[in-house]
């Protein structure tokens, strides 16, 4: 099987995707070969002028009809259920995932680690550690695709999408953009470099930026006046944001949402969309004033204030609530 594809299986999900894929290929081959054999042999047997016995023709047979209906039905439902399990697994990052932010633009991938390390067209990750990517685009739709990991996810402007994987092989694996995004689309790619945890820790130390994402976010929080309203002794009645990340928030319209990356991003850019219960909609929109990278830093800062509370829940690419 792997002779057919020289692509390495470099993530925890890759063998599962491949097994399902090759099972479906084998099933198709069996059906095609069976149909062909029946077709050819009956054509030969009952060709015009052949001495085959043509008596006892049956118009219908319940047994035959039930067989060809129920066996494929069972197979289809089986494959569907199997795929559903693999899909659900691909969509639910484990709670101990480490977050890396990805911002796509024509035509490059910018990645940012919580420690402030930034990369372009590269992503360094430790072996065996679940990595959750929170991704967005500064312009058009892109798609983050690492064939060796068997993962692919569209990256959209104006919202976050997610992807997770656990790398299981050391080495460098090509990263592609899998959504046509303009002139240099074909060259929009890079490498995911999987390192042993100790090497990765050394890499993090050697590439630390001037400040971590959360520290940069804290500076932005002051520079853009957020602390003026949300700070301890603000004159405006605004919610305290410490420990907000990962908590359930009661909204003025009676619904509740979980304060994940998307919710916080929307609260900053479209504050009128979700108004917190018990507060006046006084918050101005910061749309156009903050870059995607600023937003990521602000979220990392708010997240850092939540650390002490409880671990944020795993948030799938499709959460149960919609922010748009
Ligand atoms: C003029 C005062 C003001 C400023 C400035 C302001 N906010 Fe707000 N913010 C509010 C108020 C009032 C609410 C509650 C009403 C609402 O949800 O719109 C709020 C709500 C929020 C929420 C949702 C809180 C929750 O408990 O769910 C977040 C997140 C937030 N603000 C972040 C920010 C950030 C980040 C900045 C700076 C970029 C900022 N705010 C600047 C007044 C402000
Ligand atoms: Cu692209």
Explain the overall architecture:
By secondary structure, the protein is α+β, with helices and mostly antiparallel strands. It is elongated and about 100 Å long. Among the domains are: 98-206, Cupredoxins -  blue copper proteins (Immunoglobulin-like), CATH 2.60.40; 213-306, Cytochrome c-like domain (Cytochrome Bc1 Complex, Chain D, domain 2), CATH 1.10.760.10. Strand 2 and strand 3 (118-120) form a beta hairpin. The strands form three sheets. The chain has a five-stranded mixed β-sheet with strand order 3-2-1-5-8, covered by helices on one side. A five-stranded mixed β-sheet has the order 4-10-9-6-7. It has helices at 14-45, 62-91, 197-206, 213-223, 226-230, 261-269, 292-306; strands at 98-105, 108-112, 118-120, 122-126, 130-137, 142-146, 151-155, 161-166, 171-177, 189-195, 248-250, 256-258. It contains seven helices and twelve strands. The protein binds heme C and copper (II) ion. Heme C binds at residues 224-226, 228-230, 236, 238-239, 241, 244, 249, 259, 264, 267-268, 271, 274-276, 279-284, 286, 298.
